[in-house]
Amino acid sequence: MGKIQVMDELLSNKIAAGEVVERCMNVVKELVENSIDAKSDEIKIEVEQAGTKLIRVTDNGIGMDREDATLCFALHATSKIKVIDDLFNIGTLGFRGEALASIASISEVILKTSNGITGTEVKVVGGKIEEVKESDLRKGTTVEVKNLFFNTPARLKHLKSYYTELASITDYVNKISLTHPEIRIVLISDGNIILNTDGSNNLLKNIKCVYGIDIAKRMVEISSENDDYKISGYISLPEVHRSNKNGMITLVNKRVVRNIELNRTINDAYHSYKPDNRYPIIVINIEVDPTLVDVNIHPTKMDVKFSKMESLNELLFHTIKEKLKNINLIPNIEAKEKKEYPKYEKFTLNFNVEEKEEKYENSFLEEDNLTINEDLVKNDIVSLEEKEEQIINKETMPIMYPVGEVHGTYIIAQNDMGMYIIDQHAAKERINYEIVLDRLSKPNNDTIDMLIPLTLEFSTDEYIILKENLDLLNSMNFKIEPFGINSIIVKAHPTWIGGQYEPSELNEMIKSIIDMVISKEKNFDIGKFRDHVAATTACKMSIKANDEITKEEMNELIRDLRKCNNPFNCPHGRPTIIYYSKEELEKLFKRSGF
User: Measured by CB atoms within 10 angstroms of the end CB, which terminus of the chain is less buried, N or C?
Assistant: First the structure.
């Protein structure tokens, strides 16, 4: 008796804080989401020492009265849901009522808020309200969080370096600015402006603020819907990719979410347009009835579950695939000139240079005299919408004429617009890939008998898997039969493999295809398997680098490449062709302007 006790409120809040507040970024996230839910259209985030010393979030939202200002620090106190049915129809970013209580339990918090009628200031230290008094009447809310984790030193000890923590905060604020382009967002770290958006509700402008003008020029808009979902946003051209998935920003009803299956679907849509180990930059918002999605999985509210995942995957995949299929993807090489920039005492990153709009004349953000370095990027201001139109309206692959070959590898071609360099192996690989893939998807009974049948032996477990899948190989027009213990004999192969190989090369190709069958994943996809086989086979069938070809063969290769569904990349994502415009060539040789 007496071993089980009910924890007091302070202890339970500290435990809850372990889930809600793992690092400084989580504090910024919770406070900014509260500001958005409060209908703010201007939010300023200030941090010192990456948030460990100070996090201050100021907004111009609806504010609170004295009663709400004190009650908001109680555990499970929220204005977002009132009855159990609200939990299945969540339209706000926050709703659990844990964030402020958890943050206040491990820090010193000062809240200043006003609804325009009354102003209130509340001071909370370690979860205890120490002071409540009147404050100014500036409508909105300011929350200051100081000395984070001061009473939980173990958590403070395990924080990352200041640079890592600041990078995490910046990454989140960048994402929220892309989520809400209609809100002006400023991020300041130790007095330096990191991000400053204009709140003009132009997503492409915010992409420029976050990723820079060069990336923004290479983004294209997508929009589509079905009975369950509506998607909209921007995707990068395949030439723009990164080594990690951090640039893949998916939103659900304007909430930043993480979903492995969504990322996999988006990456699959780029298949053969880029290397498989690289990832595109995308900003896609998914609009869905709240009853079809569950965001109440984890306290951070970033993990979600969808009721009709297959419908969403199909919509995303086909929308992205069709967009990529119908635009010119030839990389344009630009001759960049060095620019002389003035020196500044403070270096500012990723900010907007548009003139302040009239709506901000009375903005509280202007009180800080936030300076914008106009000279730094004014020459880069272009109409990004016009740039996107140029990308989409170009002919898929223009007619061009070969003039020669370099190093037995690169075909040089030209037309009135400029010069093209074609990687002959990558181009032939794309042509062969589409031919083989077409024949695999429309099988016939054409086979070539092996001059010397190929006998292969496997381990017991491999042989069991292979024996279960002999029908798959036979449907691809291999003639394979069991041959003794744990062995098979290959008597014929399909015509799409071709007959131009040495026996050893042919045997290796057949072995590689059989190995794919043995190592296939649990959730086997015949489409992906055929794609993998086609890519592997096409590579081995194609002309290699340093193999010189005639002018007639160059012409034939270019003609065949123009017939491809995607003439711009080999099956592994490498570019087949790059382009130098006539104007860029003249710049390179200093002919322009003379």
Answer: N
